[in-house]
Amino acid sequence: MAEAVAGGAQGAGAGTTSMRTVVAASCSGTAFEWYDFFIFGNLIQIISKNFFAELGVAAGLIAALALFGVGFAFRPLGALIFGGLGDRIGRKAAFLITVTMMGGSTFAIGLLPTFAQVGRLAPLLLILLRIIQGTALGGQYGGAAIYVAEHAPRDRRGYMTAWVQTSAAFGLVGALSVIFLVRKATGEAAFAAWGWRVPFFVSVGLVAISVWMRMKLSESPAFQKMKDAGEHSQAPYADAFGRWPNLKLVLIAFFGLMSAQGAYWYTVFFYAEVFLEKFLKVEGPFANLMIMIAAIASAPLYIFFGWLSDRIGRKWVMWFGMTLGAVTLFPGFHLLSQAANPALVAASARTPIVVVADPAACSVQFDPTGKAKFVSSCDIARSALANDGVSYSSRAGAPGQPAAIMIGQTRLAAPDGRGLSAPALKSTTAAFNARLGAALVQAGYPTKADAGQRNTPLLLAVLLVFTIAATALYGPMAAALAELFPTKVRYTALSLPYHLGAGWIGGFQPVASFAIVVATGNIYAGLWYPVIFTTISVVAAAFFLPETRGRPLDA
Question: Looking at the predicted structure, is the pLDDT value of residue 56 above 70?
């Protein structure tokens, strides 16, 4: 990377910081902060068992996925806090504060006691640290993208800022690599008991490197020029959101770019792993490895599409990415199923499953707070099937009657957990899950994916198509967003729509999609979430997003 970056000339007035240092420092800090977020996302099943044990398997996973989203939910707050700070006093100060907050909160997660040790205090502490993480990350991306864009020469801005986009890949690869190596070194039992803490502890060394590199940075030339002239914003929120020309650009950025980026990117690099491991019963290390390979492949593709946007423009490169993503999600995930677990696909076709239940007793199991309990017989039946990764259809039963699961001609009555104590509910659902598991095995449903039947080349090919779509959308995005907004409000106006899309739409994608699966009984139904949000951006970008390639950033 150093050689490629060094080949670029500095932008006018770039000050004393070399382009190589600008890109390296911005990428290292951003990669580290992505690493922090990714280790949590990829340990979601272990987190659910250690911090939400009292909720049961399916509800615990939903709660853990919701907690994953909580960190993202606070990213817009961080965008406002640090965006305003960056537009008032400079980009560098915001850099240093966010990376320190991120590192401290991540290390602290590794020290947390589990639910078995301190009860409900454990998830409360975890929620607090996730809030700190999300707030810090909300101030990070906008600063890094803007800092590089304001240093880069006009005709290489897409290429230079694409290195910032690769930091997501570097962070994800780093997180998956550490998890994979620790998992292999400790074994699954030890990793689930205590080894999961090690990836959080590794962040201490990474934050030290990141702070050291960012201390070497000078202020960005565009901001310094504006500050020297006394034209920097004293009221960035009012300037960014209280004036229609700027607010209109914020709305275009959100609907035209960030709806797709948030929904699609997190589906590819997060939900795909949940889908492989939870629904298709692929072993965890192999699922980690597949996503890691996709992430490694994404790094040069970010650079390529950033470079391409310097040649032909940002808008249509990104539009191609989001359109390709929207049209390939459903067929792609069906191919993933065929490639990863053909026996499960065959069993679902041969012996379909039906849940017969009173519709009034069936809940939509979407709980962003993680507090709700889904304990009716219908909810227990649906949760158990979703946890087993099995598709099913629903049929209305008699009012007030308990739900039953029909596996071919076999009928399995589901228990009603309302009114049961927590220990009684846990033992009752465990016994039911055991009976259900035995009935599924008898009907030919596999308990795990058979590695001998796996079509790994097809699986990787599907993930590569997803990755091409994600990188075409995300590669030019930093340059496009920086060019979209005026310097005076760039940090604030860029950061808010970015983190609303990535934070709220992207962060809650896994839990929303999983809840849709539980509600519908179709393991593919959760894909409607990213398809709808991505399609919104396809339409909005085509009609409202301007071409920004080559715009001066100090105007």
Answer: no
